[in-house]
Q: What sequence folds into this?
């Protein structure tokens, strides 16, 4: 053997250093689960650097945004809008939120009011969320007269949004339950792209962390971003509304996508053998009964995907397909007979189980 002791020591030092720097170049998987917006927030991120920092920043964003838009939080902007209903002055919100609300109002108009966040007084009357989560034990259902009464305090057309000021008529309320998680997903995407760095290994984030890929789920709202280090596709399961413990199939996706599902199988109560779920038809004031059990939308905007999944659930098959086409999103409907109806683009990424 001709190696000197010095050379062996040197070799022994260099190999681990090379190995370590190679490791830090390969994105590592980091997962986290928490709660936010009344649902489970689960994250899988592939990160060069500190994965925990990334998931903490995402969770902080969800918490801050919830404080901005939750109608359950007294100090939120949405509570401010609701408290100012009927006041001449209107309520001032941020430019970002008012821009989003304008998009929300456009979807109300484009869906002929099937999607309408001013349905809140009727939603509160039914209070299905609280009944479904066990926070209210009552088996009482609202009367036709009560529903009619609350319906008279709804209508997106009666609200004015001028610049960043919202004017709500007296007695009106808004509830962003049908679109808030999608709006949060849009903000998470901006965070991952702008603040946390890009896919490029040469563009580090904050000098330390860069996100190669991520799947972030807020209940029925899923964001896929970037790529997995091994180059394989993202797989997003579509729940079987007839048997919510099982999947109907998988969406095989690459890059950035928003997958949003609205269904009647999670937030509902059964009273006297009847199922009452949480998506209200603003035309009747009753839980929507359009022959649909679930709607999945694949889109490049969280806000649009979330609003359309609710709108399409209310509209029913034919009008839902039309609206999805108008917005250039892909759609998968499960009808109450168990039939799967899909747009062509959805068909090309859906693999049935
Ligand atoms: P979606 O179809 O996306 O939305 C249905 C919800 O939208 C209904 O629950 C109702 O609130 C509203 N809605 C019903 N019909 C219509 C319609 N036609 N047009 C427009 N809106 C309609 N849940 C809790 O239990 N506790 C919480 O503290 C809580 N906080 C939340 C905070 C925020 C900021 C958000 C966005 C949600 C929160 N939630 C909470 C969950 C919320 O109450 C809804 O249950 C949830 O957003 C429903 O989402 P979904 O994807 O199931 O259905
Ligand atoms: Mg929705």
A:
């Amino acid at each position: 053997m001709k190696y000197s002791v010095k050379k062996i020591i040197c070799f022994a030092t260099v190999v681990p250093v090379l190995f370590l720097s190679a490791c830090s170049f390969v994105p590592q998987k980091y997962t986290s689960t928490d709660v936010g917006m009344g649902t489970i927030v689960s994250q899988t991120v592939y990160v060069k650097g500190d994965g925990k920092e990334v998931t903490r920043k995402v969770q902080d964003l969800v918490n801050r945004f919830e404080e901005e838009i939750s109608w359950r939080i007294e100090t939120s902007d949405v509570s401010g809008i609701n408290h100012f209903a009927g006041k001449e002055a209107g309520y001032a919100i941020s430019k970002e939120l008012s821009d989003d609300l304008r998009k929300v109002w456009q979807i109300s108009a484009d869906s002929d009011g099937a999607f309408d966040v001013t349905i809140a007084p009727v939603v509160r009357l039914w209070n299905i969320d609280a009944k479904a989560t066990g926070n209210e034990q009552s088996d009482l259902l609202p009367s036709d007269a009560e529903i009619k009464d609350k319906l008279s305090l709804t209508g997106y057309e009666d609200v004015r949004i001028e610049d960043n000021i919202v004017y709500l008529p007296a007695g009106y309320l808004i509830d962003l339950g049908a679109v808030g998680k999608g709006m949060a997903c849009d903000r998470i995407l901006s965070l991952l792209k702008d603040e946390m760095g890009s896919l490029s290994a040469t563009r580090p984030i904050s000098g330390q962390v860069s996100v190669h890929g991520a799947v972030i789920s807020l209940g029925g709202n899923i964001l896929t971003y970037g790529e997995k280090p091994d180059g394989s596709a993202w797989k997003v399961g579509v729940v079987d509304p007839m048997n919510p413990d099982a999947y109907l199939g998988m969406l095989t996706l690459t890059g950035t996508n928003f997958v949003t599902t609205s269904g009647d199988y999670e937030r509902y109560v059964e009273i006297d053998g009847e199922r009452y779920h949480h998506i209200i038809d603003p035309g009747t004031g009753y839980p929507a009964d359009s022959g649909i059990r679930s709607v999945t939308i694949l889109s490049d905007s969280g806000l649009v995907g979330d609003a359309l999944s609710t709108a399409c659930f209310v509209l029913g098959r034919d009008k839902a397909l039309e609206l999805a086409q108008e917005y250039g999103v892909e759609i998968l409907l499960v009808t109450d007979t168990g039939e799967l109806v899909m747009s062509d683009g959805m068909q090309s990424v859906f693999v049935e189980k």
About this structure: Residues 5-25 form the longest helix (21 residues).
